[in-house]
Amino acid sequence: MRGLAALFLTLSLTGAPEAQELRGHGGPVRAIAVDPAGEVALTGSFDTSAIRWRLASGVAEAVLRAHDGSVNAAVALGEGRFATGGEDGRIAIWPAAGRTPERVIVAHEAPIVALTAGPDGTFASAAWDGTAALWSPQGEERRRLRGHQGNVNGVAFMPAGGLVTSGYDATLRLWPQDPARPPVVVTLPTPLNGVVVAPDGEIVVAGADGKLHFVSAAGEVLGEREVGPTPLIALALSPDGKRVAAGGIRGDVAIIERSTRAVVATLVGPGLPVWSLAFSPDGGEIFSGGGDRMVRRWDARTGEHIGAVIPQAGEDPLAAFSGERGAEVFRACAACHTLTPDGGNRAGPTLYGIFGRRIASAPGYDYSPALRALSIVWSGQTIARLFEIGPNAYLPGTKMPEQRVTSEADRQALVDFLRKATAPR
After folding, report:
1. Where are the WD repeats (predicted)?
2. Cβ(53)–Cβ(60) under 8 Å?
3. Which end of the chain has fewer CB atoms within 10 angstroms, the N or the C?
4. 313-421 belongs to which homologous superfamily?
């Protein structure tokens, strides 16, 4: 259900004043976008969901479902709106509130892997069908860019107009604003992944050779910077264009001063691939998403991790259950689900009084039609079964990401904890 099945689509509660990791996805975090106001972020994952987060509190506001496959790309469109691109070749445009997209576009014939925002609310997409496309703020196609011989892995707007795309065919293509003019084709020595463009027009592209390649706005190759021995798969540019963050397969993120090509800081993660990166609008913070299913937050100047993984004891709603295995299993759920009568609904409904409650019946929560049509009553047996076989098998028609608790002991501990913590009082 988009209630209890959302149990594991959450983040740890953040304490004031420090931010925490954003925990909630059930698979690697493939995309991160931050609204220009710096108040809201949207993330996409291999678990087929997007999550909208309130950054000041770290609370997940909504779990968003529109894609039949992984959510590979996200972009902020301004005024709280976002767009996501998926493995299904579709783009979903999301309003500032609610869980229903304004529009879903059949945009490409293969997975979309990059989205970027342009002037006046326009945006562009890149996909593995060998094309990129330019879209109006409402999602109407304005231009289709064809020419790459293989996957298009990156797209960015040029300051003077036009677009640049990067491809697995090792070419960078600079597309003039005038569709009648052919692109400038720059061939580099390696397949290319993400691409960004600085305010002065310099292009930075991530290579499968573990290097950043620098190209002028006219297509002149300016130089390169080796970051590591493995492919670079995530790239972000600071708002002022002075620094580039690049992440790779091994999990570290290098922050490079663009003017000198020097590595000024390294963000040391858990050793798993970093799939997505984003700077905060003020340039002070970097968000990284990767194979550990969370979004980590870093000081962009020092490279130091921001916040603790586990909330401070005085700020932890589970402090009273310290040492209980069931509470630890539930910990990742605390930001999307409350347990008390005054907690209310968040991205998922409150779990207060869950035992004996019919599915999709918590007051004030907007359940999906598929869940409202079911007749399950939540009990120790039904909760355990949900996480034993997963939402897709237990709740036919649900759009929830697949989540399972494979240990029977952990499932029982979770049930015992929920029975105690959600009991009416």
Report:
1. 22-63, 145-175, 267-308
2. yes
3. C
4. Cytochrome c-like domain (1.10.760.10)
